[in-house]
Structures are given as structure tokens and as C-alpha cells.
Amino acid sequence: MRKLIPLTFAVLALAGCGTGQGPRVGAPASEAGGMPPVDAALVTPSFGWVLTADRLLVTSDGGRTFTDTKAPLPATTVRAAHFTDARHGFVTASAGYALTTARTSDGGRTWTTGTVNGPEYGSLSAAASDAEHGAVLAQTSRMLPSATLLATSDGGASWSPSPAPAGELGMETGGRIWVAGDGLSSSTDQGHHWTKTKVGIDGSFDTKAVAPPTGGVLPVTLVTRTDQTQVALLTSTDKGRSWTETNRVSVHGKTGPGVRVPVATAGGGPLVVDTAGGHAYRVPAHRASAMATPDLRPAGLPEGAGSVTFAPDGRTGWALAAYGRCAKGKTGCSLYHPLSMTTDGGVTWRQVRLWRERLN
Amino acid sequence: MPRSLRAWTAATAAALTGMIFVSPPPAQASYGNSIHMGWDACAASIAKAQAFWSNTPYWNMGLYLGGSSYGSGCKRWSSAEVGQLRTMGYKFLPLWVGPQAPCTGFPSRFSSSTATAYDQGRAEAKAVYNVAAGLGWDTTDAPMIYDLEGFDTSNGGCLNATKSFINGWVYQLHVAPAQRAGVYGSSCASGLNSYSTIANVPDFIHGASWNGVKSTSDLSCIPAGNWTQRQRHKQYQGGHNETWNGVTMNVDSDCSNGPVYPGPDNLTSPQGCE
Questions:
Q1: B56 to chain A: nearest residue by CA?
Q2: HEC readout, chain A
Q3: For residue range A57-89, what is the model confidence (pLDDT) as tens digits?
Q4: Is A254–B149 a contact, with Cβ atoms under 8 angstroms apart?
Q5: CATH topology of domain B32-260
């Protein structure tokens, strides 16, 4: 799971380095100001981060208060972040022809920045596997089936670009890199060579969206020919060279192509978080002959969950969602971005922060 | 049959028979100006498009008509489906994703020769015209947008070929009965402003500037004085998930101050796009 893999990066050394320091300020756990979040993750039971188009917020109390780290990056929605513990992390942003990366080893109090010149990217994904190995997957266009992987094997002192498949990035301990899109590819040499992995899905379907493996399970979101969304869980018996479907759950939410229903590792197994809200399924990786309904019907879980992460304790987690409402017809519309927290493995959730993006 | 030849053939046939050639009146004007929000996605079903129409802020939809670089896994809308979308009320930003700049990694690229690229631009314009006509659209003045993904604009040869390609695209779309020629791309990395000085300037631009700001007047690398007369659409956020009416889709967010298909103008209920 990309946000739970331990990482300790050395200080990043890139061209044009500089440092910045942000003051500590509190924020109420109510409607928040500023640009809406693009991603968030809980790293430990108390430490987490929220990335917006213009800020990187961190919390050290589970989300009761947040600090604007003043990460020195250009304002853009094309951003990605990764923290491996409460101190070490990096955030990257693409604006114009520069990819800016900022790294911290003190929880965001100070930053070291650098830039890599290249094309203007439309989406970024970040991951790391250990103190030395990390990567950013940068894509210029979703119309293009390829991307650029910027990999480091020296703690960020240098980044080497190489062609890569397009998709969502994941890394595991040992350095294997996953890129999941329509299919699944992996690299064990920092992206120099890619192997397409066999993903065996039962039956027919309209579209599929593969997510990087998490907790030994490969989640695949399927849209069937009858427009129903299902999540297939695949496991591997050959160390990830091939994956076979071992369980599947139908969810209430409807999803379009490219949408991955969130699956996180919680309570010792995979937790499928329904985009419909109010439903989450503790689905064993393998089918049991007499299995009770896996729906936890969690209280307080909002619809539109897109990013769900759990701390290593498996009980404390965050869900970041995005759903829209209009007051009347096409007027008074807003996108709501609630950040919710659970401390019981996903059975109950409470909102810790809400961004309201007024659209008109 | 090339469009110009087809038009000539029809006119000649009418003259020879002594009849007055009159096109059937379109049910709706072929374009109108919009100041509203929209979305585009690689694919969606009718039901999902409906979920993003009712009680949402969206009036417009980026409609991909095809092209050699259009994703194989993406939706090809049938004429009947396009009709259903129109019945819902959607106005379209018609997009064509053909060959890309020669210095990109796309499998389908146009030539680095400016002369060849110009001809290829014309050919793509004919291709999109044929698709639009095949959908039964009133193509006169209909907006057609070339999806030109980002490339290395510091590569002079690549930029010149791209300018020539767009020159051909616009030239051909302006052949009577003319369409409105647009270009989509990163407002910086697709070199959009470079096309303000070519012989056949695009009628409008659809610039991607993913700063989260809806206003079409705020487009990086585009001077305020260019494309000012309702000649801009803006993609202000790239692929992200939104849930409306129980349906989650991965969409780009657009805001318009320019032409959409079909008309008429809809300049009421502003949404901050101007």
C-alpha cells in the first residue's frame, strides 16, 4: 500500500535547492477555507497530511488541528505527496515546464526543494519503498498509454527518468514498483524494465481499473455490462507474477471508467469502501463457503470516498471523499470534501474536516 | 468524398436541374456561446451522463468524436446516444484526438515536415467533419476542437510542424460551409499562443490550465488580449473523481466562454467562467 510503506529519505539534493519553514497554526475541525484537497493520507494513528492545490497541511493529533507547512511549491491541482512517518516525506507539483519536489525530514517544518525540467504533466503519483528508493509517476495526458517514471535510489540526490506505463503508482518493501491502470506492470530495477503481469478476472465486464497491490491483495474495480460496479480481489501464489481472482463484492455505488473503489488494509484484511457511502465490506481475500454478509454498514461514512488509508495499527484510518449537491436545479451547487476518521477499523466514522467548494 | 467536392457536386446538380438548392433548416442553431461549466471523461454511459446533468452545475460535456490518438478503451458515442445526450440538455465541446506532435511519444504522430503536417492537419479536419456529418449534425459554424496534447515547445522544428498542422486544420475547417476551428491543449505546453500568429488563426481555444481557477480569462501563457470575444474554454482541473447523484466518475472540469454545439446562445446564469 503506497501510503503505508516505511520510508526514510535522506535530504534531497536537486538543482536549485532552497529551504522554507512554516509556522504552527491550529484549525477547527469544521468547514475549512482555502482550495479543496486533492489527496490525503493517515500515516500513523496521530500523523496525517492533506494536500490541496496551494497547501500541504499536516496534523499530529489525528485531525483535530492542522498546520500549514508552507511547502514551497507552485499552486496547481497537479500535485502528489508521500510521507513514510511523521517526519519524512515529499511533495511534488508540476507547473509549466518544471516538476518541483520538496522534501522534509522534520514533519514539514523545513523543506528542501529542487526542480526537474520536462514537459508539463497532467497528473502525478508518488510512492517510496525505503530510505533510498522512491519514485514519481508523471503523465502528460490520459490519452497516452505511457508515462515517465522519475526514480531515485540515493534518497533523492538524483532522479532518473525512464519510460513507464500509465496508471497509479505503488512501491513495496524491496523496491518493486507497481503501475496499475487497465492492467498491472512491475519493475524491479527502478523502472528500466517493465514486466506486464497477468491479471485473471472471471467473466465479462465493460471496463476495469486496477489498483496497486495492498496487503497482498490486488483490487480491481469492474463495471459490468449491466452497469453494476464490483470489486474483485486477486491474490498471487507466484510472488506477484500472476494474479487470480479469489473473491468479489458488488457495491452500491455506480462508477465510471478509471474510478478505483478504495480498498485499504484494515483489521488484518482488505476493507472495500463503497463510494455510495454508508457501506464498507470486510472481504476476505479468499471466498469462504459460509460467509456472513461482509457489509459493516459503517455509521458516518460519507459518499464519494476516493482515498482511504489506515495507519499500521489497522484500526485508525482516514477517508477523503468528494460529492456534489445543488440547492435547486443548477444553482447553489457545491462540491463537499469531507475528511472522516475511524478508530475502530472502519465500523464507525466521524468527520474531522470539511472543505466546501462553491461551484456557482 | 471530399467535402468541397461534395458541395460542388450538389450545387452543380441543382443548377443543372434548374432547382434552387435549399438546405433543410436545422432544428437548432449549429452553435451557441456558453458561459457554463462542463465535464469530460474518457467514457460514460447514458445513465451516468444523466447523473451528471440533473441537479448539477454542469451544462456542457466534452464529446470525443474520435481520432487516431483517442484511447481504445474510451467511449465511442453512437448517433442515438448523442441524441439522448442532446435531449437531456447537454451542449457539446466536440473534440478530435488525432495524430500528435512529432516530438511526443504518441504512437500516432504527424510529420515533422511542415508541408506534410499542413496536409495532415487538413485531412484531420475532413475526418472530423465527416464524423460530425455522420451524426446528423448541422455542421455549418459548428465548433470542432483539435485535442493537441503537450509537447516540447522549445523544440523549434517540432513547434513549426505543429503550427503548420494547426494551420491546415483551421484552413480546412474554414472551407465553406465553414466550421469554427478550435484547439485544445495545455495553455503553455501545447503552445496555444503560438497559433495566434499563424495564417489561419483558430477561432477559439480550449486551454488546460490546472490551477483550479474557473475563469477563462486566467489562462497561463495566453496574453489577455488574445481570443477575447467569447473565444475561450478552460479546463481548470484534470482527471479527478466527483460523485453526483450516486455516480462517481473520473472527470476533467471545464468552464466555457465560447462556442458549443448546438445553439442557441445561453448567456444567463453565469458560473464564474467569464
A1: A330
A2: CCCCCCCCCCCCCCCCCCEEECCCCCCCCCEECCCCEEEEEECCCCCEEEEECCCEEEECCCCCCCEECCCCCCCCCCEEEEECCCCCEEEEEEECCEEEEEEECCCCCEEEEEEEECCCCCEEEEEECCCCCEEEEEECCCCCCEEEEEEECCCCCCCEEEEEECCEEEECCCCCEEEECCCEEEECCCCCCCEEEEEECCCCCCEEEECCCECCEEEEEEECCCCCEEEEEEECCCCCCEEEEEEEEECCCEECCCCCCCEEEECCEEEEECCCCCCEEECCCCCCCCCCCCECCCECCCCCEEEEEECCCCCCEEEEECEEEEEECCEEEEEEEEEEEECCCCCECEEEEEEEEECC
A3: 999 999 999 999 999 999 999 999 999 899 989
A4: no
A5: TIM Barrel (3.20.20)
